[in-house]
């Protein structure tokens, strides 16, 4: 297993009530698997799947990028404010 830190913002942080999580995933898991797990835990977040961007270790990446042990994953939904 690999361990990743998942940073949560906006609707994701509201759903979990936490700013970050530490999860274990199977080796070779793609960053998109993190969002799959979030939606499995909180099905009402499915509507955000197509508009969420991913970051891994401070770099924007696609959902197919493989994660390695110790990665920091950020889920970035669209946000607005003033």
UniProtKB/TrEMBL annotation:
Keyword Glycoprotein: no
Superkingdom of origin organism: Bacteria
This protein's GO CC annotations: molybdopterin adenylyltransferase complex
Gene3D superfamilies in UniProt: 3.10.20.30
SUPFAM superfamilies in the record: MoaD/ThiS
MF (Gene Ontology): nucleotide binding
GO BP terms in the entry: Mo-molybdopterin cofactor biosynthetic process
Keyword Nucleotide-binding: yes
Pfam families in the record: ThiS
Keyword tags: Nucleotide-binding
InterPro entries assigned to the protein according to its UniProt record, in alphabetical order: Beta-grasp_dom_sf, MOCS2A, Mopterin_synth/thiamin_S_b, ThiS/MoaD-like
Similarity field: Belongs to the MoaD family.
Protein name: Molybdopterin synthase sulfur carrier subunit
């Amino acid at each position: 297993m690999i361990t990743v830190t998942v940073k949560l913002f906006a609707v994701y942080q509201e759903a979990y009530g936490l700013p970050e999580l530490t999860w274990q995933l199977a080796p070779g898991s793609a960053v998109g698997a993190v969002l799959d797990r979030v939606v499995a835990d909180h099905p009402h977040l499915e509507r955000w799947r197509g508009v969420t961007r991913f970051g891994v270790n401070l770099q924007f990446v696609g959902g197919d990028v493989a994660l390695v042990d110790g990665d920091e994953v950020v889920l970035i939904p669209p946000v607005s404010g003033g």
